[in-house]
Amino acid sequence: MDGADWPGWPVEDARRYRAAGWWRGETFGELLSGWAARFAGRTALVDGDTRLTYADLDRAAHRLARALHARGLRRGDRVVVHLPNRAEFVTLWFALQRLGAVPVHAMPGHRRSEVGHLVERSGAVAYVGPDRHARFDHRPLAAELRAAYPGLDLVIIDGDVTGWDGFHRLADLLAADAAPIAEPDPPAAGDLALLLLSGGTTGTPKLIPRTHDDYACNARLSAEICELGPDSVYLAVLPMPFNFTMACPGVLGVLQAGGTVVVARDPSPATAFRLIARERVTIAALNPPLVPLWLQENAETAPDLSSLRLLQVGAARLADDVARRIEPELGARLQQVFGMAEGLINLTRPEDGPDTVCTTQGRPICPDDEVRVVGESGADVPDGEVGELLTRGPYTIRGYYRAGAVNREGFTADGFYRTGDQVRRLPSGHLVVVGRIKDQINRGGEKIDATEVEGHLAAYPGVLAAALVGVPDADFGEKPVAFLVCDGTPPAARAVGAFLRERGVAGYKHPDRVIAVESMPLTAVGKIDKKALTATLTS
């Protein structure tokens, strides 16, 4: 572990987690080799007409690791992975793990602003993206990144690179017959395995360091609670770079159980239902905005969902009345999921009654997950009362990557992570998510840092002050609304969206409404009073 870049677990805690078996001392490269030996001929991955067995995946990852090593990638190098859902994402991820290189997970909707921050903060030496995805050409973005960050030596594109000098085609690397890796420097289980992206409330997103030991624990315990096995077939609907899709139990949990991952290249219910019927999918994971669309599509088309046993819903709070419709209408058992890329995962259990499943967001997956619910004074509140969730445990980080000042505020002196989530804990240990302390907008699971977007809005010509607030929305949970103080005619939402797009800000962060105000209401200490702004929308 590199203590200069990120704090690891105290020695005594690490020893306890190993003794308890939560940490097993295996890297993901080693795990894939073991899975390939156990499940060699079983189907690991399905993406359209592409079907990879465990042995196929193992060989492809090893061949790609050799090709990447031949192009200079080494243990500890950070690689921004900006791929959408496809088999190549999984193969690349494991190839990097074999090298001990560190994938930095970028979301498919991220653009220059977000990806540039990831490159800069992580010190990435390589970028991997598609040629085009969702009508966006990633190659000019890659060229801009390479020009802006001299340390970004290697650009790999999954698709056409004609006319782009110095870009490497991922398909060529996958097909390369590279020489064996000379002087191997294998990673250790305590090494950094990947960097996830936090929603952030400090003006820029934070990078979340996850090790092989802790992230494997995350996926394995989730898979055990979901009762996964070799007959499990998981549909990856949400983006694979999400922690939810990757390891709760997600891709990694299904593979460790010997099951099959089916890739959905788009999240539409029609695509999902077609894949469920064709591949006999048994488990899928959604965010709340997709649930009403599934219910509507099911009512209109009566698809064959007979194989679907478990539907996970997480990434944002699911409305109780919608939760109660899932099993009667879709025929699958609901599992609520509440967690964070920083660590703690909560799941409802098979033995939980319908009321618990439909009205709570689950309980921690590990006996060594420590949970506190505290009031404003920092003291623990009784069960049933609302407070901020604090947590630590074998797969919850003790600090962000290269973020010393943020870590001093975001973690207690004894290592508890301050989640910023307001919850009620029931006597059973189940948590009910009530709200959020942090200035963050949760648009259907996509976390929007208001401070970051406000910085871009303030750069719009004629804008004197800007505030972004989240307002309740039936479909997405929350939507962003911008309040602007302007010198002259205020811009329309479409003009603001075009401006943010030009600045490389992801589309989900654009305000749905823009409201001009003469001045910002202020609190007693001179800060913008966002509660007062929100109240004007409901008064």
Automatic annotation (TrEMBL):
Q: What class of enzyme is it?
A: ligase
An example Pfam family from this entry, by short name, is AMP-binding_C
Q: What is its EC number?
A: 6.2.1.71
UniProt-listed InterPro entries: AMP-bd_C (IPR025110), AMP-bd_C_sf (IPR045851), AMP-binding_CS (IPR020845), AMP-dep_synth/lig_dom (IPR000873), ATP-dep_AMP-bd_enzyme (IPR050237)
Q: Which Gene3D superfamilies match?
A: 3.30.300.30, 3.40.50.980, Luciferase, Domain 3 (2.30.38.10)
The protein's GO terms of the molecular function aspect are:
2,3-dihydroxybenzoate--[aryl-carrier protein] ligase
What residues does the AMP-dependent synthetase/ligase domain cover?
35-401
Q: Keyword annotations for this protein? A: Ligase
The AMP-binding enzyme C-terminal domain covers which part of the protein? 452-527
- Name the PANTHER family on file: LONG-CHAIN-FATTY-ACID--COA LIGASE, NONRIBOSOMAL PEPTIDE SYNTHASE PES1 (EUROFUNG)-RELATED
Protein name, entry field: 2,3-dihydroxybenzoate-AMP ligase
Q: Which organism was this protein described from?
A: Catenuloplanes indicus
